[in-house]
Amino acid sequence: MTNKPLNDTIHRVTQRVIANSRDGRSRYLELMERERERMPERSQVSCSNLAHAYAGADEDQQALRASTGPNLAIVTAYNDMLSAHQPYYRYPERMKIWAREVGATVQVAGGTPAMCDGVTQGEDGMELSLFSRDVIALSTAVALSHQMYDGMALLGICDKIVPGLMIGALRFGHLPAIFVPAGPMPSGIPNKQKQAVRQLYAEGKADRAQLLESEMQSYHSPGTCTFYGTANSNQMMMEMMGVHVPGAAFVQPGKKLRQELTRAAVHRLAAIGRESDDFRPLARVIDEKAIVNAAIGLLATGGSTNHAIHIPAMARAAGIAFDWNDLAELSSAVPLVARVYPNGAGDVNHFHAAGGMAYVIGTLLDEGLAHPDLLTVWDGGVPAYAREPFENDEILNWRDPGPSGDAEMLRPASEPFQPDGGMRLLQGNLGRACFKSSAVERERWTVEAPCRVFATQHAVAEAFAQGELDRDVVVVVRFQGPRANGMPELHKLTPVLGVLQDRGYRVALVTDGRMSGASGKVPAAIHCSPEARGGGPLALLRDGDRVRVCAVTGELSTSADLAAREPSPDPQAELGVGRELFAMFRAHADEAERGGSSMLALSGL
């Protein structure tokens, strides 16, 4: 099929992003060029410095000393509590062997933390989650600061980890980089069954033992969680931007194909190093078109709303300005071509089997709905990512994925599930917010009702248990923004609000906190900016005020006279679980639309 010309809206948004980024992008590229020029050749570095760098290299010492090939850095987010990252345990030793096959060397430059939002969900530690992205970026910078490397392999998968690795790596964008995933765990019990047990537990109709058994049948082995939340949305975006080996996103751990894809990543990274004839620095791979492609993929697949925060933050690290106006306008042109749980019945394994990312990228390119002409880490640009990997006589190869293997999960962009991408910008006298309409039935896109105001999700659960929310209601959960408490995800609200909705009430959530890709079927205006802390509009609301949430008109407003009110006082930050150590992050964080980052705000990016 001949690809159609680029969609007019996508072209217009891209040109606006380029124009708005002109100064920042120019400064960034100038810095990367200076960094490339001033980065010392290893042969010119002090012998004492080199001895320290080579002392632990064992059998690679002589190759490093002779400087006969590229030396590649691994920055790893391995730990074995996080199921998605447990498979990384053996990666470095295997990658060293595969590097030697092409005359290269590999060293683990450093590690980053990797917390699991699923473990901290609803607990105090969740308040560190968003800021862990800044810590990961800083850890990546520390790892790469030794300047002993010709390329970087970035081992990370989950929620804040990939954006953090990307932000840190982009500040070393004079080097090439490849992201190396590990794949999703096999499918567990059906997602609807898991969701049903959660709601039964919320209603007191299932006990804790039943709930734990259900959850452990869902999350049961090494690999990424299989629902289409932030972690799997990360992997989708890395394909859309061309920083994976094509098709690497959703091949399960332990498969021979998974191993061959990682081997190919090492070989390719050696081939595009700074001394090669095919030098592909990350600074040139991640440009304005790549950021737009990431957003397009997010919209086309109904991905995590967390990326309304992460995409602007990653863009800033590359000198690119991208905001919610850009995301909303792209959403008006990009159709929804995938329904993956929680937007559909099947999980990412079913998605991958039905054609996965190769199918999605192919159909978007066919309809002129993605930029094909990126400099990717792999030859062939974005069209190379419209092919799926397979082994033929133990040789890694790629092929056309063919038509969708499941029309209930994947459809062509010419016949989509819905004509837009389902990520809408709401605005009004309560500020600006994101609304993920792709997960919500259209008749629930508009909710207008008296509000009930809370400062914590636990208070919502208590009010629900007391029967105080059995009515049409807009639940407002405020003081959940970056400066208030680190902007935790509020998944404890999902079963409670889902039960109210199932009882026939008109229910919506309004919050300056996060909900992510697992937010589900309840209409929610999230990431409200300005946040309540410091006097944002949500701090002016009172119980009973009538609030309107409308994804049809893009409205987030109240009929109350806010101008006549004083804001509710900011609550004191809680101590414990290390939260006090993150006071600087909270104090200097910027708004969610700019990425919710203190590190980027303070660095002037």
Description:
Catalyzes the dehydration of 6-phospho-D-gluconate to 2-dehydro-3-deoxy-6-phospho-D-gluconate. It comes from Qipengyuania benthica. Belongs to the IlvD/Edd family. Strands 7-8-12-11-10-9-13-14 form an eight-stranded mixed β-sheet. Strands 2-1-3-4 form a four-stranded parallel β-sheet, with helices on both faces. It is globular, with a radius of gyration of 24 Å. Helix 1 crosses helix 2 and helix 9 packs across helix 21. It has 605 residues and is of the alpha/beta class. It has 23 helices and 14 strands. Strand 5 and strand 6 form a beta hairpin. The model has no long low-confidence stretch (mean pLDDT 94). It has two domains: 328 residues, no CATH class; 149 residues, IlvD/EDD C-terminal domain-like (Glucose Oxidase, domain 1). The chain is 37% helix and 13% strand.
Question: What would you say about this model in short?
Answer:
37% of the residues lie in helices and 13% in strands. It is α/β, with parallel strands linked by helices and 605 residues long.
List keywords for this structure.
605 residues, Glucose Oxidase, domain 1, 8-stranded mixed sheet, 23 helices
Coarse structural class:
alpha/beta
Could you estimate the helical fraction of the residues in percent?
25-40%
CA gyration radius, whole angstroms: 24 Å
- For the report, how would you describe the main beta sheet? 8 strands, mixed
InterPro entries: 6-phosphgluc_deHydtase, Dihydro-acid_dehy_C, DiOHA_6PGluconate_deHydtase_CS, ILV_EDD_C, ILV_EDD_N, IlvD/EDD_N
Keywords: 4Fe-4S, Carbohydrate metabolism, Gluconate utilization, Iron, Iron-sulfur, Lyase, Metal-binding
Domain Dihydroxy-acid/6-phosphogluconate dehydratase N-terminal: 70-379
Cofactor: [4Fe-4S] cluster
